[in-house]
Amino acid sequence: MQNAELMETEVITEGPKRFVREKLRMPDGEEIDWYYLDTPSSVMIVPITAGGDVVLIRQYRHNLKKYTLELPAGTVLRGESPKDAALRELWEETGFELDPESSLIDLGDYFLLPSETNRNIHLFLASSVLQGTEKPPGDTQIEKYFDMSVCSMPLAEALTSVGRTIHGVETAAALLMADNAMKADSI
User: How far apart are alpha carbons 183 and 125 in whole angstroms?
Assistant: First the structure.
């Protein structure tokens, strides 16, 4: 497909997540339609308290018709760095903030479902977070409709919950990478 000729691009739906169809002519002359989800960059943060608990979000996901346990995450806004986006999402969704004596650890950036989307996610570890004194605001676009709550559990328990109560691949991967980073750096 690398040598396919792009003949036409159609945006089927506009919005923060665009659904796109591209008509391609393959090197052998065959024409195919290729569909994908075009999304902005996003962030996910693994917030760990001084006591070793990971802070998670329990929320209802309409597309799944069930509740999920996930790490705080969201879209990188125009002009915003991934680091700033991660700290903003942490605050908006949980009310927690990075301890001023601590630093944010970059766990890398990755593609999610590369066969279906161009979504890129930047993962971060906050090895010491503190509960803020104010109620988290949530975002103003869609989270106001989510049934969201904050919960926490020991990191070891969260890791053993993967596949039982934690089913999101990006949350599972971020937890594993954070655990490895903390063991390697003895945080």
Answer: 13
For residue 135, the enclosing domain spans: 42-185
Looking at the fold, whether 138 and 150 belong to one and the same domain comes out as yes
Contact 57, 93 (CB under 8 A): yes
Residues 27, 85, single domain; the answer is no
Within this chain, do residues 30 and 117 fall inside the same structural domain, yes or no? no
Which is higher by pLDDT, 88 or 143?
88
Residues with Cβ < 8 Å from 174, sequence gap 6 or more? Answer: 44, 46, 71, 107, 123
For residues 137 and 149, state if they share a domain. Answer: yes
Asked if 84 and 104 touch (Cβ cutoff 8 Å), the reply is no
Question: 87 and 73 in contact (C-beta within 8 Å)?
Answer: no
Q: CB of 35 within 8 A of CB of 21?
A: yes
**Alpha-carbon gap, residue 6 to 84, rounded angstroms:** 36
What CA–CA distance (Å, rounded) separates 102 from 111? 27
The pLDDT tens digits for 43-88 are: 999 999 999 999 999 998 888 898 999 999 999 999 999 999 999 9
Letter for the amino acid at 98?
L
What is the number of structural domains in the chain? 2
